[in-house]
Amino acid sequence: MATIKDVAKLAKVSISTASYALNNQPNVHPDTRKRILEAAETLHYTPHFSARNLKTKKTGNIGVFIYGFSGPIFSDVLEGIRQYLQDNGYNIIVSSGRASTTLLLERQVDGAIIFDSNITDDVLRTYAKNGSPIIVLDRYLTSDNIFSSVIDNEGLVKDFMSVILKKGYQKCAYLSGPEDSFNNNHRYVGFKDALHEAGIKDHLYYKGDFTVQSGYDIGKVVAIGENRPDFVYCANDESAIGFARALKEEGLRIPDDVAIAGFDNIQMVDFIHPKLTTIGIDHFMWGKHVADTIVNIIDHGTKDRLNQPEGRIYWRESC
Amino acid sequence: MATIKDVAKLAKVSISTASYALNNQPNVHPDTRKRILEAAETLHYTPHFSARNLKTKKTGNIGVFIYGFSGPIFSDVLEGIRQYLQDNGYNIIVSSGRASTTLLLERQVDGAIIFDSNITDDVLRTYAKNGSPIIVLDRYLTSDNIFSSVIDNEGLVKDFMSVILKKGYQKCAYLSGPEDSFNNNHRYVGFKDALHEAGIKDHLYYKGDFTVQSGYDIGKVVAIGENRPDFVYCANDESAIGFARALKEEGLRIPDDVAIAGFDNIQMVDFIHPKLTTIGIDHFMWGKHVADTIVNIIDHGTKDRLNQPEGRIYWRESC
DNA sequence: TTGTAAGCGTTATCAG
DNA sequence: CTGATAACGCTTACAA
What we know:
The first copy, chain A, is an alpha/beta fold. Chain A has twelve helices and eleven strands. Chain A folds into three domains: 4-55, lambda repressor-like DNA-binding domains (434 Repressor (Amino-terminal Domain), Orthogonal Bundle); 60-148 and 283-309, 3-Layer(aba) Sandwich (Rossmann fold), CATH 3.40.50; 153-281, Response regulator (Rossmann fold), CATH 3.40.50. Helices cover 45% and strands 15% of the residues of chain A. Chain A is elongated and about 85 Å long. The N and C termini of chain A lie far apart (63 Å). The structure holds a DNA duplex.
């Protein structure tokens, strides 16, 4: 692997002059610059990341740490982040599991966007203390270098449920996600708030885990059970899809026998029958906004608050 | 940020002794080791990645470079890779776009798994020349440090189509993916081979792009067109799902009026109606195998050939 | 305009 | 068992 030393030697200049030329510094004679650049070219020179980083303290990397690689919701956020970063001279590094913490602690990134509730607040605080900014997307947590932008789960679901109740649905059920999920819990609060405000005391509750399979399994037992709701709010689209499938297999009509709705507006909801009414976030724009913010913090030291991502109801056929 | 120097000072030893202790080297007195470890603890010491890497030439990172963050197929491969690496002391770093090439060239990874046809063979060869192993999953390419493991698209689709033809379907169509896609092209070859062997000269061809939307759009025009096939093989499940949806909306019955099948066996195919017959790869195991291989190459210099991922037909209701 | 040299935080060689 | 010290590849005062 060619080093800057090799380039300097080939171009017959000192290492520092080579460095200046390679970094587009002004004070170097056009001719020497040309020679240096050519030498670098013929040697296929690429600067060594660690060596540069050791001096400059800059990695050029932004980490995005997610809790798993599955789930259609991530992809849009990631793509938004990726596009923005690519256009602004940063690399995106996404990781999951223990690797994330390592990347943070060892300073392989200049900043991080967190979408992984397994990374503890403590680790984040430790890292942020060293001056590197962090944006959390999955919890409320702010401090000197920690910023947060979370979905308004509560408000969105509450508003939606208010409309649903006005439509006359009475016997409502909530199909949950994992009970330690930030999103699930806030959606449930919104759900209950709306019922409370409408003076409805009771509701049914099914414990799911955000997967199609869990929705399906629960749907099967609900369909044949006696205490059937006329509306069930599913904590995400995937479980709603499974739930709907089970109901249909058992001969129930949606929305006539039981109406349903979900959260996320994943692509698939437009291709099932009946098309699913749901609440959607503009994930792509959210990703861009978040990336924009972290780059500005790093490059210019700005400390603006982040916006909440935009969300709205997509009315379709399922209720 | 605490450095090893700080740790040494606090423990009242030299830097080198601190280094030995921190790296579990044998020749250090239990008592001093204890003091050093405690000092590291209280200072929240974490070794600096770049400094260590500069000396050792080891990053502990494996890069996985994908062409985009969308698509349900990736997630399982990634999860398989991630789990294996996590259990074997490596970090997974996934990236996409220009960032990938940067990570490669700047040696921020000890090896790379490529799932991105936008990275040219040349870049891969340049990198591999420096001794770092590469595994390509999306093309045939081998050289000294480049290994490849690709799906047997051709064989799988051909075998499948042979069965289909034996079932009596006559007028077959192929709904393609992007025409520069490795997977699409090999699947198409398999499709044509089977027809050829069965003595069938003609087939219909629809140009898609692997998305649900494209399948849907094409389905709409095929459904009302006159020259309707009785079987259409879709290059992937997502386009098959869109295609099926369109047919149903136009009042056609699957598989009676037209039978369909796909490729990938994504989770959703089990939750649409009718359930989709498809060809599936064990992506998770594939990921593990690939990760296992690259770790062995790096750690032990082994140069075994990779296995093809396992694939099989999942017969369901759509044909 | 170019060169010399210090230093970033580690590891590893060599003495002690 | 422990401690100086060189070296990894690069950037950046400072000197020439």
